[in-house]
Amino acid sequence: MPLYIYRHVEENPDCEREREFRWQQPAQDWPLTKCPWCEAPVTRVISPALLKIKKFDCELKDQGFTKLVRVDEGVFENRTRRKGEDKYVDRHRPETFPILEKTIKD
Question: Per the confidence metrics, is the pTM higher than 0.70?
Answer without folding.
Answer: no
